[in-house]
Amino acid sequence: MNKSLEKHLKDHLRVIPDFPKKGIMFQDIFSLVEQPVLLKKIIDEISKVVKKKKITKIVGIDARGFIFGSIVSNDNRIPFIPIRKKGKLPGPVHKMKYKLEYGYDQIELQKSSIIREDRIMIIDDLIATGGTAVAAGKLIKKITSKKITFMFVIDLYNLKGANILKKKGYNVYSIIKAEG
Ligand code: AMP
Questions:
Q1: What burial class does residue 138 get, using C-beta atoms within 10 Å of its C-beta: 0-12 exposed, 13-18 middle, 19+ buried?
Q2: Which are the catalytic amino acids?
Q3: Which atom of ligand 1 has the smallest separation from the CA of 161?
Q4: Could you read off the pLDDT of 75-103 as tens digits, one per residue?
């Protein structure tokens, strides 16, 4: 998106090899979140897309999507809506099951939170293989009629999650591209 911002953020991004298990290069987003000037730059970059796409609600994916999503929504004076793992949200919920490496998981969204006319931006800290993001897209698509926008702070581009989303017809944005 913004090449000089991307380089600046990458210079400050802490990458921890072999966490939580061997072979994973863990992108520690908290090395950016803990620096207010950098966090503000990230939020402002996301807000440009919120304005351009005339987004009406921000949907954050459990749990690190909540950090960026709630600040962006507050800055833009639009509602923040959480997508959570099974059994965490009270009242009637929309549900979407998705496949994991072993078995299944389920994400949920409170039924009254979004309507058909909403233009949704789904935010998460990072996209790798895209498992949860694809399920989140499907869940929102069941409810709204407008094109859905995805926003990730980091895209592990070689794991192709963002490509999968693009092929499904979503708008997909990220700020930092890194190797996973
Ligand atoms: P995925 O469903 O494969 O796209 O993974 C999505 C979630 O897993 C992201 O929201 C991250 O929080 C976490 N994650 C996956 N890979 C990494 C990584 N290399 N570094 C940090 N977080 C990761």
A1: middle
A2: 64, 101
A3: 4
A4: 999 999 999 999 999 999 999 999 987 88
